[in-house]
Amino acid sequence: MKDLILIFISTVLINNFVLYYFLGICPFLGVSGKIESAFGMGVAVIFVMTIANALSWLIYHLVLVKMGLGFLAYLLFILVIAALVQIVEMFIRKFSPPLYRALGIFLPLITVNCAILGATLLMVTKNYNFIQSVVYGFAGGLGFTLIILVMAGIREDLEYADIPSVFKGAAITLVTTGLLALIFMGFSGLISA
Amino acid sequence: MQVTVSTSPHLKSNIKTAIIMRQVMIALIPVVIAAVVFFKYRAIWLMLNCVLSAVISEKIILRIRAKSTSTKDGSAALSGLLLALILPPSIEWYAATLGSVFAIVVAKQLFGGLGSNIFNPALIGRAFLMAAYPKMLTTFVEPFAVDTVSGATPLALQKFSHITTSSVKLFWGNVPGSLGETCAIAIIIGGVYLLIKKIADWRIPLSLLVTTTCITIVFHWYKPQSGSILFHFLSGGLLLGAFFMATDPVTTPVTKSGRYIFGVGCGILMMIIRYFSGLPEGMMYSILFMNSLTPLINRYTRPKRFGT
Amino acid sequence: MLTEVAEVVEANGNAVKIKFTKRPMCSCCNFNTLCKGGEDSLSITNVPFPVQCGDKIEVSVEEKVSLVGSILLFGIPIVIFVTVVLLLKRHSEITSFLAALCTIAFYYAIIKIAVKKKEKYFNLKILRKL
Amino acid sequence: MGRQNLMTEFIKGLWKDHPLMRQLLGMCSTLAITTTVINGISMGLGVTFVIVSTSFFVSIIRKIVPPQVRIAVYAAIIATFVTIVDIFFKANFPKISEALGPYVPLIIVNCIVLGRCEAFACKNGIWASVWDGLGMGLGYTWVLIVLGTIRELLGSGTILGKTIMPSVYNPLVVMVLPAGAFLLLGFLLALMNRLEQKKQVS
Amino acid sequence: MNEIILAPVALGLTGFSFAVVLAILDKRLKVEDDPRVTKVIQVLPGTNCGACGFAGCHGFAEAVVKNGKKFSGCIPGGLAVNQKVAAILGIDAELHHHKLVAICRCQAGKKEKNISFVYQGPKTCRAAEFVSNIDCAYGCFGFGDCVTVCPVKAISLFDTHICVDRKKCIGCGKCAKMCPRKLFELVPRVGTTTYYVGCNNKEKALSVRAVCSSGCIACGICVKVKDSPFYLKQNLSYIDYAKIDLETPLAEAKAKCPTKCIAQSNDSR
Amino acid sequence: MISVAEHKKPQYRLASEKFFTPRKLYLALSQHTGKPSRPCVKAGDMVPEAAILAERDGLISSHLHAPSSGKVLAIEEWYHPTLKRAPSIILECTPEPKIYTPRNGVEKFNKKELLDIIAASGIVGLGGAAFPTHVKLAPPEAVDTLIINGCECEPYLTTDCRLMVEQLEQICRGAEIISRIIEPKKVIFTLEDNKPEAIKKMQHMLRTRTNALPSAKLVVLRTAYPQGGEKQLIYATLKRKVPPGKLPFNVGCLVQNVATCFALYETIYLNKPLIERLVTFAGDALNTPKNIWIKIGTTLKELFDQKVLFFKEEPQKIICGGPMMGISLNHLDYPILKGAGGFLFLRSTHSDEESACIRCARCVDACPMNLLPLEYAKRVKHDDYTTLEELNIKDCIECGACAHECPAKIPLVQYIKIGKKYASNS
Amino acid sequence: MKETIKIVSVLTIVCILCAFLLAFVNNAARGQIASNDTKKIEDAIGKLAPLFKKTEKLNIAGEEIYKLFDAKGEVLGYAFLAKGDGYQGVIKVLAVINPQIDKLEGIEIIESVETPGLGARIKEDFFRNQFKNLKVSVPIECVKENITQDNQIKAISSATISSKSLVNILNKKISELKKQLANQ
User: Fold this and answer.
1) Gap from D115 CA to chain C (nearest CA, Å)
2) For the sheet containing C41-44, what is the strand order?
3) CB contact under 8 A, E56 and C27
4) What are the helix (H) ranges across F122-195?
5) Which residue, among D138, D112, D99, has the nearest Cα to D28 in the 3D structure?
6) Angle in degrees, CA A74, A79, A84, rounded to 5
7) Contact at 8 Å (CB) between E104 and E265?
8) F381 and A160: CB-CB below 8 Å?
9) Chain A contact set for D183 (CB, 8 A)
């Protein structure tokens, strides 16, 4: 149990996907403009990331490794993620059309979100077992959501700020993210307790 | 007869932004005096260095951006002074200058100048230096013997060596530490002055201090070597942070309930960092983290309009 | 609030059917062609003002609704998923994975009924005519 | 297609339609691996190879792929070449492979590659696509090299592992940390904007 | 050697199943896009400014393809883009004239306007509206809110006096919407010069004179000109743009106006 | 709620004077909230004092009476404090003092008769809003509490205070009339603790006149701004909150100003319509401040021309109303309206330039409606009107407390006014 | 239907072709990758024990422990990989110990993500050299002040946790190693 808690804390706060691994910067820059889109995106990422991690673990360890086909991992992972997103999208469309209008927009973005693929790859390199992988995916998504929400809040404020024109847009967002990364360094060392 | 027309109200209070900044400076006088007493000429040089580089960099930026606003409101000088007060006295001059310039240019002016910054500039300056020159920022000197003896801060001693410094020493500030953080009595005098003059809102310091008290009581009871209430209260940057950093109007919530949340969040985070993290002190990071949450807090604690 | 523009394709009194035009924010996206989430039609029941076929209207999902929606649709099920996986630690990976999937499926079945009942709550709101 | 046209396809990726600075694509690996120059060079070349080869193949099969499976097919092709690059690095440059870590496989989701396939290769001839891919790849590479140089020089005082800065220089550790990467890229973007503004004025 | 057989089989199976899913999906959600729409979008600047009145560039492209006549609606793109759009749609790409042009019904500058007091507050017309910064209760505040709102930068401010560049104006009416004193009017674009009455003060001559030296005093001289399209209403002179055939009566009236409040804007300037 | 500098010292003790000899009167047709009244005289007509000049047009409107006998010169545009220029009846006075004969049998009048008299007398709320009183006195819901508002929270103004000191008996009789019309369970007189003389008199009055208003009591409130606002006053006295978009009667209350009570007394008992009112003239540009009974329609200029008021120094600012919510005027040609409680002539203006908001939230703390003024200003400055209504900008009462407190000297009220206007348009 | 067949067939064929390509490339590079892995370990060992010529991989409970022989075939010592949590993440360290298992020959940090400028200095020579000839018959101690005993090392100032973590990782592994080798 302790290992799971450590994985959780370190993934959310210390080795945050955005601030430490730089994963998912593209959607982070794109969707962090409004709090509610950020939240919708974040929760969708948690969902897809957890399930993709679980599925990828099963495929990698139970199929690929056993058959000696480890080199197919990347190819299969991306296909699995793409298929998963498509299925989720279809499912939500059936489930509630209005909600699909509100939330479905984030799903195609997730396919090309490197955070999802990154999570599965890191899960493989870190040699996690099944449960650890699931927790890793969940925590990774949560960390992503946390940062994108904080960023969305800040950006909504910055909309009215008198930012130098050359810094408007992506530049100031990156600078802010840099400052956030500075701040999150304060959490380093939490896992060694 | 040439009269002026404007919208109501035609009567305005005397308070001005510049006055607020000046009052905070006045409140910092005891802290500055304590710093000079303990760390001698180093304190003077460090403060001069930070204040000057902050003001000059702000002037340059305003010139480049062709803004009519001036540095006369004293906000840049105040940020520089606050930064000097949270740096170790033994820091190299170029590091202090760099931190001060970074604080003003990146943390303040890039975000649109006074009033638009998301993070407290002084704290960002220190966080930047912490990442840039980690060794320099974690090396402290004994007071009165600034050139010779390096020492560990009370919190570091407590955390890594389980040696508790006496509260009396902490109260008067005769311990190694950042320039303005050591002398508790001076900070308390300044803080009380701010609250009496209604320059700072009492909600954040109150909720912050109450939260830390509650947490330390619980932990002290559960694990006595984790440090007493008084120890945690008087050591490190808690008091300076609570009275001078967490009350910075620009980077803290505007709603009343938001300010309570801010204070409580700072308190909890700081104690988590003090107890569990690899760093002995977490005031800076906790306030900065809550700064980043401030827009969200503001948005979700909007007061209910009158009558509902 | 996320707003988008839709065209009315069928109108009879209080219930209209609308067809969405592509979202304005999509046209500058590099993956414009990737996502088919573009066009779709929907029926709305509570219409605040009379509309005619061919009218362009602005619709939105309320902020609260979209928050609740994403929690219901993604948040709670994924927490359930993780919990089930954690509970079935001792079982083989496939068993726990399938069990977790089944639990969410069950959850969705329940929620689906609940959402049906509160259909109005999740409906789109018509903001104004363009 | 004439030579002139091929040249323009090549040039545009270097500045005008720069994938990173203009289209804001491929941020992840840019930020992650530019701690040293050598990493930047290897990553840039890896990406260039993947873009060029996928552009080539996508362009070949562009007429027979039905639009519904376009993305899946592209993803498969990209993943294949990325795996090849990965294997190549592992076999021949194990040190670099280790330093780049998971960011080599992440080229798969690097929006530049998919973006070029979607926006260009699937509509244009083989040579145009290849030149376009080469331009984009090299455009990406030069920014990686610039970023890598600055970060290595300021953060460790070295370039390509050789000490450059005088010994009194106290390395600015923050530059090799994530925070430094974000800040630097932010400033670089601002610089690009500034140049663009100047160009528009004049 | 085992893997050389195994790998294609495994991946082939995955690919197959994925393809089946996609095929099913495709059957359910058929989307048809006019290829011309995509082409138009590629030509457009892609800023989604909304100046065309549609929701973003995509909305504009769709509308243009559906109804080719409005092909020149893209304002930031200007003529170059419009010609490209026209080429895609196969429409003759001649310079398209907008039918309406904006005029400002206050032509008084600092000298003419009577200002007996000092205004204190934000320097925008919308703010000044609540206290006013000129004595005339109908005239232009001169802070230039219309200048900032104009998408084609056709409006300029010369010492608190508004000029509309007839050549640049596209008649979008944003200035008319913005002006708190409702001074802008969209009039038909006829000939190369547009004449208009540069005053909006509906009070009697004496009151007008008291606040402005170039206000319309409803003297009726312009109405008396031969073939005059002018008419008086509420102490103010108006031009009936439907009646304009010749430029001479307009020019004559302009010359005769005692307070010089008839103004003109033409393409040459 | 905030505390503001009162500036009431000199004029507080000054007994009211009278000025009834203007040469010309400028009577705007919009003296009140609602539709302008319809003139029923024409240029050249000779009218006696108290004759109807313009009639009520619709329900929410009010009659306009001739404050003096004279000749109608014209009906044309004239200066108006809020509308800038508005149609007005211009009357040349030929003074023929009229003697009003008291009405008989007032005690026997029923509700309807009383309301009819009020409607015919052109009385509007004299606290500032100028809402027609006959409409307000016929609430669609039962009212259990009548609050007589004597707070006068605006600095400088002392008319209500003087009125209570000088005419308390009449005010009470006016209040009796109101309570006869709406039949409340309780009548509450409210005063702020900065008017000790009025409080003393009021206490004495309530002790001696117990039979007339048996359920009346006095509530003395701590001085605060803007306590005189209806919703704030109801909350301060009864702790009842009037919901947004609702009116006092929705929580069973009715608030009337003391000056309105006095006007009601004059109408009902003396048969005198509303043609004059008590106005405070104050400010440091005046030689001596004064409280003056003045005919509606008199221009400021006339007061100075006829040497009723003197300038000590040229004023920098002329304000119609109180300093917190009043309107600044650009010259002295403006007439006195029914709702104007005071005119201020100030020597210095606050010339502080607006600077950047430092988010100190003093405006949030000051707002009596619990709103976020800084958010409005921020959005309006950036021309973003889309979210203003979500932020309840429409609930703002424009009391000016936020702008008074702002250390950056941002004209918050002006931004809010812009925001309110454009929020509804977009 | 024709459309569907096209969709399915194209994707399947592309996948199969890709797989073929990958399989061949992988096959060609596999040997090289495997030898790279061992080379990396041997290089590291070579730095610590320059005299070794041959390694023998001992398979004890799935852990990687190498027995080192010099040119004459005499046992030089053991090399082992130890792994554990550091300040920010996992630290992986290779250590060489003498045949008596009471003295370290040296350590080499294989992998770490400690804070640059602070914890990352565990990689630097001044720190690593302290482990040369360090007595490990009793657990290693990490002190902040000056060294007083030969089983002590001085922690990096301001990076006490990283230093301590490394020492703990080594201590734990060495004690395990002692048991395991004793069992053999």
Assistant:
1) 7
2) C41-44, C15-20, C2-12, C56-61, C125-129
3) yes
4) 133-136, 159-166, 168-182
5) D112
6) 125
7) no
8) yes
9) 174-175, 178-179
Nearest Cα to Cα of residue B204 among B253, B165, B155: B253
C61 burial class (0-12, 13-18, 19+ CB within 10 angstroms)? buried
Q: Which residues of A touch B111 (CB under 8 A)?
A: 158, 161, 163, 172
**Contact B114/B75 with Cβ under 8 angstroms?**
yes
pLDDT over threshold 60, residue G4: yes
- Rounded mean pLDDT of G101-128? 80
Rounded to a whole number of angstroms, the distance from the CA of C15 to the nearest CA of chain E is 24
Alpha carbon distance E86, E73 (integer Å): 11
Sequence letter at residue G120: A
Q: Do chains F and D touch (3 or more CB pairs under 8 A)?
A: no
Cα torsion angle, G8, G9, G10, G16, sign: positive
The strand ranges marked E within F67-164 are 70-80, 84-93, 145-150
Q: Give the residue from chain B lying closest to G87, CA to CA.
A: B278
What's the confidence (pLDDT) of residue A105? 65
Burial class (CB in 10 A: 0-12, 13-18, 19+), A130: buried
Give the model confidence (pLDDT) of F239-259 as tens digits: 999 998 889 999 999 999 999
Which residues in chain G have Cβ-Cβ distances shorter than 8 Å to E2? none
Phi-psi sector, G158: left (phi>0), alpha (psi -120 to 50), beta:
left
**Is there a contact between D22 and D135 (Cβ–Cβ < 8 Å)?**
no
- With cut-offs at 50, 70 and 90, classify the pLDDT of residue G26: confident
Structural tokens at position E176: 């008319």
In 3D, which of B83, B97, B157 has the Cα closest to residue B127?
Answer: B83
Report the DSSP beta bridge partners of residue A93.
Answer: none
Q: What is the pTM of this model?
A: 0.89
Give the closest-approach CA distance of D175 to chain E in angstroms.
34
Provide the ipTM: 0.87
DSSP state of B179: T
CA G165 – CA G157 distance, rounded (Å): 14
Taking only the tens place, the pLDDT of each residue in A22-76 is 888 877 887 777 888 888 889 989 999 999 999 999 999 998 888 888 888 888 8
The C-alpha atoms of residue G146 and residue G165 are separated, in whole angstroms, by 19
Q: What pLDDT sits at residue F327?
A: 92
Angstrom distance (rounded) from CA A86 to CA A102: 17
Q: DSSP alpha helices (H): ranges in chain B? A: 17-64, 75-85, 93-102, 121-132, 134-137, 154-156, 167-172, 184-196, 203-222, 229-234, 238-240, 256-276, 283-300
Type and span of the H or E element at E237: strand E236-239
Residue type, D72: A
- Point out the residues of chain C with pLDDT beneath 70: 1-4, 13, 21-41, 130
Task: Tell me how far apart the alpha carbons of residues F76 and G1 are, in angstroms, rounded to a whole number.
Answer: 83
**Percentages of chain E per state (helix, strand, coil), in multiples of 5:** 40, 15, 45
